[in-house]
Amino acid sequence: MMLDVLLQPTNFFRALSERKPNLVAPFFIVVAAAVAASLGQALLTRLLPSPIPGGVAVQLVLALVGGVVGGMVAWGLGGLVVRLLAGPDSRAWEVYGWASVPGLLVGLVAIPLAALFPITGDLPPIPPLTDVEAFQAWQRAYRQLIWEATGFRILQGLGLLSALWSFGIIWSALKVLAPAKALVTTLVIAAVSLAFMVWGLLSQR
Q: Average pLDDT for residues 158-171, to the nearest whole number?
């Protein structure tokens, strides 16, 4: 089924339109994609010093919780945007969920890559949090180290490719379910998503 979404989205959503709505699979796809991405990020930076006490185990637990919450929010808001733009016949939350399959695929690739090739580098000891200026300088060095890491660049590139793939799936879906609003809806979602991606990248600098 997921292979059909990736390779034959028009046929997949044409068949979907003949079935009753089912939000279970789309919901779990979005949440799983967010969890995989969050865990991949945590694994990528696990060897670097962290101001969060508890070590790698705590970081992974926080990544898991953050991924679940972030995935739920993304699914709710993403589906809402599709619903508002494409109308009641768009099966918005199903479309948004199934369109997240490329993100899930990239996340499943990112986890072993990050586990095998974590970021390493020389960073000074973490200064006391009470020394605001020194801590901010340490954060800048931390972000710069991550930004320059090959693994980070690879994962960001894969993330961009998965986003473009997802936009194509949304467009294919809406051509079947809400053809009059397919292009506008896809362009708006793409613009908003890419804006958030650029903001996230700039925040790492």
A: 95
